[in-house]
Amino acid sequence: MKRLSILVLLGALSVAAADKTLAGSWKITLNVAGESHELSCTFQQDAEKLTGTCKGESGEGALTGTVQGEKISWAHQIPYNGDTLTLTYTGAFSSETEIKGDLAVAPYDVTGDFSGMKIPPATDK
User: Fold this and answer.
1) pLDDT value at position 22?
2) Could you check whether the bond before residue 107 is cis, i.e. omega within 30 degrees of 0?
3) CB–CB of 26/99 below 8 Å?
């Protein structure tokens, strides 16, 4: 019985360790309408809930989203020529430090794709 409890505990720990997280800073590259743009996004993750900010050439905006297993999605707004655009990202982890997926820009019904790389935390020397 004791051995079974240990095996169950080890199995639960390995599943928990396998969960990927967006928490931290990411460099996001967008490809939309033949143009490439870069953003830096900082995510806070509480279970499946995402919050944070994305900052690019048009400014900085708050984001909200979700993480469900390997699948990720979030949205934020940016100003553009007097309008407000909503960028919605839907994708998945490629690895613990890479994400990829599709991008939708409303209200213009423009689509594209994105990729992201996690920025390692700074270390004190």
Assistant:
1) 94
2) yes
3) yes
CA-nearest of 124, 47, 45, 54 to 89 is 54
Question: Which residue(s) pair with 56 in the sheet?
Answer: 59
**Yes or no: is domain 20-119 CATH 2.40.128.120?**
yes
| Domain ranges for the chain | 20-119
Q: What is the pTM of this model?
A: 0.82
Please tell me the chain's helix, strand, coil percentages from 3-state DSSP, rounded to the nearest 5.
Answer: 15, 65, 20
- Tens-digit pLDDT profile for residues 13-53: 334 445 689 999 999 999 999 999 999 999 999 999 999 99
Q: What is the rounded CA–CA span in Å between residue 36 and residue 19?
A: 30
Tokens encoding 84: 């407000």
2 band by pLDDT with thresholds 50, 70 and 90: low
The answer to whether the beta carbons of residues 21 and 33 sit under 8 Å apart is no
